[in-house]
Amino acid sequence: MSKLLVCGGAGFIGSTFARQRVREHGDEVTVLDKLTYAGREENLRDLAEDPRLRFLRGAIEDREAVDAAIAAAAPEAIVNFAAETHVDRSIAEPDAFVTTHALGTYVLLEAAREHGLRYVQVSTDEVYGSIEQGTFTEESPLRPSSPYSATKCAADLLVQSYFHTYGLPAVIVRGSNNYGPYQYPEKLIPLMILNALHGDRLPVYGDGMQVRNWIHSTDFARAIGHVLQHGAAGEVYNAGGPDEEANIFVVRRIIELTGASQELIEHVADRPGHDRRYSLSSEKVRALGWSPQVRFEEGLEQTVAWYRDNGWWWQPIRSGDYRSYYERQYGRALG
Ligand code: NAD
Ligand code: TYD
């Protein structure tokens, strides 16, 4: 059992990680989260009465908030999920990406250094850019394409510099595309599920043949916990899912699982600078004893069922600010 400060723990993957650490490991988890549009205390609703979970609202770029969280949590490690995570938003408005990823990560690293804490940075395969064939390893060059991935790179490079320069015991875990319960519906899979359930159009960017390497959020969260416990300081670990799929096939499968009409598919203008394919080799973290448990076919079916059964979670989102975001991004209103 350990004490952890989990930054960004009210988001999709961070809340999944917090749940696993409390329930499966008996850890004491303090969540520090700014509660941006994507961060929601509802994501931790089932842990609200658990004394092993503490929630603090605050930004990682705010040193006072970070110090207060460390004082309250007395953690052995910081695990940093806090991020702006949507590529389309980074194209429209990059500011918060720079603040959270560059400045926020720097503030956390300084705090970890001062307090002698182990540090885990949650990162993404998008730092490697697009790959037509083959898979990225931890040695692949960093070639980010979007303001999202470029600022995630900035964070990763800062983390590595704190290991090399100050000996901070830091590790980086780079995941592939996550899916599962509690994912904000701006992302491909929950967007398509909720649109299909409501009879809204399904906006496929370009030809829909872009490929993503899908990992269930519970598998990625376990990989992060595994690296927290077993990873070597200064190392990077890729954690990719077991399956790759082109977007159009994901959308068609969601249509089958929801019983919606194929007619809802609408090919729309492509994302600027759209990465064609992501693919990650996870040999290094597999050698530490982790492997993904959920195949995409089964995980997607469970995810569709979760959204169908948990309207309490998505109704406030779909009737709130998300509607205006959707109109700005897609040029049409949700039905
Ligand atoms: P999310 O958008 O659901 O959650 C991000 C959380 O961070 C939210 O709770 C938000 O309120 C919080 N946050 C944002 N800025 C903050 C700040 N300045 N200070 C404190 N909290 C802040 O994202 P997610 O999908 O759960 O992603 C979590 C991490 O995993 C991110 O670092 C992301 O880059 C990485 N990642 C995500 C994926 C994916 O497919 N979703 C894949 C690989 C890696
Ligand atoms: P997304 O979920 O935004 O993740 P990322 O860009 O980080 O991979 O998008 C996944 C893929 O789905 C990506 O190729 C873009 C595509 N996409 C669409 O075709 N339509 C959409 O409305 C969205 C949100 C994504």
Q: What can you see in these coordinates?
A:
With 335 residues, the protein is an alpha/beta fold. It is 44% helix and 17% strand. The chain contains twelve helices and twelve strands. The strands form three sheets. It has a seven-stranded parallel sheet, sandwiched between helices. The longest helix has 21 residues, at 95-115. The N and C termini lie far apart (47 Å). The site of nicotinamide-adenine-dinucleotide (NAD) has 30 residues, from α1, α4, β5 and β7.
Which range does the strand content fall in? Answer: 15-25%
Distance between the amino and carboxyl termini: 47 Å
Number of helices: 12
Small molecules bound in the structure, each named once: nicotinamide-adenine-dinucleotide, thymidine-5'-diphosphate
Q: Which geometry do the CA atoms define?
A: globular
- Could you tell me the radius of gyration in angstroms? 19 Å
For the largest beta-sheet, the strand count, sense and barrel status come to:
7 strands, parallel
Strand line-up of the largest beta sheet? 3-2-1-4-5-6-10
- Please give the number of β-strands: 12
Secondary structure class reads alpha/beta
List SSEs in N-to-C order.
EHEEHEHHEHEEHEEHEEHEHHHH
Whole-number average pLDDT? 98
> Which consecutive residue ranges, at least 5 long each, have pLDDT under 50?
none
The proportion of residues forming helix, as a percent range, comes to: 40-55%
